[in-house]
Fold this protein.
Amino acid sequence: MIKKCLFPAAGYGTRFLPVTKAMPKEMLPILTKPLIQYGVEEAVEAGMDTMAIITGRGKRAIEDHFDISYELEHQIKGSSKEHLLTEIRDLIGKCTFTYTRQVEMKGLGDAILKGNALIGSEPFAVVLADDLCINQNGEGVLSQMVKLYDKYKCSIVAIMEVPKEETYKYGVIEGKEIEEGVYMISNMVEKPEPQDAPSNLAIIGRYILSDDIFEVIKDTKPGKNGELQITDALMNLAQKGMVLAYRFKGERFDCGSVDGYVEATNYLYDLEKGGK
Ligand code: UTP
């Protein structure tokens, strides 16, 4: 059973400056909910109850969001607005939130390693909250991945097909398809130029990791941009055993970029309006 989900949320979100100067990127709203809340909801849907969040300086709003605001509750109690807090209150009631800080931004691999203290030694999920995944009328991406983990019991990365000219934005995999949409990874490259990319199958911000990843990260050298890359660590893990890539069902929006953020907002707005 996978009960814990790690949220690396220490990055600076420079593509959203100046809004991210004093506000975490993960708190950017899509309609009325912050990005990270969508991620927590996806994890809860997949059966997880412990959210381990890697924060940094200027990220306190995340902790406040997943807490009771007594003044606010008191203020709107009995009013027509009280229901607006019901969803987040219920979510808080279902989970435990734990936090630690990544003191220096040394890359996603380093952020995940910092999570070792919160995760301990058990398999866990990772969500990059700025990748918003929606599977309307179907299972969330983490739920799909947990099912696959139950079958194969190894680390899994979520992938999607991207236009070849965009491979430089992603970790890109190469592998053999062992069942529909499931690949056994033989190679992974972080942000390759299109001519160097082994495929157009790009890793997005959903992972299920076995706890041996922590030791592997410790033995992985800094890679692209001098950062400790999770892609490099996973490649090392794949060489020792098996790492799978899973082409998930659903939509993914890159809300770390302005274009993806606007697309996600429009998509969910249309869904909400259509559902009314
Ligand atoms: P990104 O590179 O997309 O996020 O990292 P960023 O650095 O915040 O954004 P830009 O590029 O400056 O606009 C992917 C995810 O990994 C986390 C980020 O918070 C984000 O969720 N991350 C990245 C860390 O927690 N620590 C790091 O050292 C690097």
